[in-house]
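fwd from M.: "can u put these together and see what the complex looks like"

so here's what she sent:
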Amino acid sequence: MSARIAGFGATALAALALLALVPRLGNAYYLALAISLLQYTVLATAWGMFSGPTRYVSLATTAFFGVGAYTVAVLGEILPWPLVLLTAAALGAIVAGIVGLSTLRLSGVYFVIFTFGLTELIRQLVVWFEVNKSRVLGRYVFVDITQADIYWQLLALTAAVFLLGWLIARSRLGFALRVIGEDETVAKHCGINTTFAKVALFTISATVMTLVGAIMAPRWTYIEPSIAFNSMISFQVLIMALLGGAHRLWGPVLGAVPLTLLFELLSARFPNTFTIILGCIFLLIVYMLPRGVAGLFEKLSTTAGGKARQRANA
Amino acid sequence: MTTFLTRRTALLAAATCAATLGLTAVAEAQTSIKIGYAISRTGPNTGGAAVTTIPNYELWVKEVNAAGGIKLGDKRVPIEVVQYDDRSNAEEAVRALERLINQDKVDFILPPWGTGLNLAVGPTLNREGYPHLAATAVTDRAPELAKRWPNSFWLLGTSADAAKSLVELLNKLRDEKKIGDTVAMVSIADGFGIDLSSAARPALTNAKFKLAYDKSYPIGTQDLAPIVNEIKALNPDVFIAFSYPPDTLALTEQSRIAGLNPKVFYTGVGTAFPLYRQKFGKNTEGVMGIGGWSGDSPAIKDYLARHKAAAANGAEPDRWASAVTYASLQMLQQAIERVGKIDRAAVIKDLQTGTFDTVIGKVKLENNMPTRYWWVGQWQDGEFYGIAPAKNEGARAAIVPKPAWVAP
């Protein structure tokens, strides 16, 4: 077992080293594409970390992403970069903690609606503050961060997220979450502190999303609420995680990578019909792959007996 | 059985998708000057881009190609356009530009619509050494940005300048005893409204105007009647609204209904749109707004006619950034022709130092910005003329007091 883990670790390290060389290619377009791939990989994986095992569908990705981006907009020129990132992570964790404590008792569709509303709430709060207190709307981010720096930071964050996800899955916390996902009432009866488990994971996942927002912010120079809190991010991350399969740690990557490439291809080749095609693809995913690509792999690798058992269970 | 039915439905959906794709095959001919742009065809910026930017890009390309193309040395080469949708999204805009530069290898790039997106693409265009002619961005950091990115040109000026010109005009009118000194000001709680109101507030107070009303309203406010009624009760001499198109229309309509008819009635973005005249007809007379152009100049008259003829539905340009956008394209063309080859560094140099003959008159940039702008315009007899700054060539005298509203 430990030999397998060591082998896996070595492969992952080698892949990481290879990926770290992407900025050396010297093509800004490929670098931009790679940044986009990593951004969605981290977001979707972080989303899956919480929503996969607990089956709570969260549309709050944008809210945390925006908090991160805005932290950079406010503090970017004042504090040194590592401190800015730390502050962003802390803010994300605090917001997630408060939100988690107050809402994770909600279930099903109420939670979805709340998380969607959360994005709008935070955005309106930022607008209110900027209009009435600071009297500027739209901030400038002039920090000395190159595209390659952004890429490397995202790569490091990707590695950290996978390591974290792997550790959590093997911990008591991960097991508790799986039980909650299967049946929350049973989990409670088993003596699991369900609220603590859910809030803890929600906070970890949200902190990662906040960091992505903070790392990405220097790419745009100019940040205003409508840019930082663009709700499209929530939906894209959700559909990526669903395509990949949120019940596995490595599932969301299988959705994030092909979909990011597909979005790129579509907006390059069909700029005017992009949204129509996107809608068709979403329909196809939901109809054809209800358990995502990860589910498809699992299905293909199970034996005929396993298949029969699955059918019997369904 | 259910599974089978859903599969079939899915296949049907797939077939529909395939049919949609078939309709949009892209064919591009080989030509010599490749010009690329990413513009908002979807998302919140669509309205602005569709009125001000896209028609002018299309008009210019059509006209240049009809004349044989851009003159490089002693031969003319036609323009080939590569365009994308930035979906009103900063990240998308940056990536589209990186694609234009690295994959499509375009020779020149035309900027996106709006302040936010122009700022977002600034660093990329600067790094890659492309000229950046921002014709639809109003930002107070323009002078600083022009220094930071010497390839960028900020043709629409700063909001501080806009507020200053308006207050200067009010000052002059008060000196002429045409208005008193009570001002009511409202602004939209968004970038534009906040920038302008925070510049106008000190300017008005320094000029000893009495600010009787000073409030902001959120984007998307449907009912502006309470604001208008409250202002009417104060009976101000001057009404200033730093508003966006939907609320510009709503405030005007509500003021007409409530009979708020101060001596100076000024509204924000959208006042200069042809739509405003369509909606209010005779009631536009005397209304002031941001923007304006020299409506009497033959170049502008000619531009208006060409724009109307070329646009799909005979649409007119707006009377502010449209002409500036078209002028920026003329400047780019003249700079390329003077350089005589695809040499972006030389073209940037020429834009910084040269003099250009455009629809808005002779343009010579100083520190990458024009030296004159139209900041206040007024509807006079069905045309939106520039009235301030008064020293601009072609400035008309203001009609004050504003005539009474008439029944539509």
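replying to her w this: Residues 2-313 of chain A form a domain with the ABC transporter involved in vitamin B12 uptake, BtuC fold (CATH 1.10.3470).
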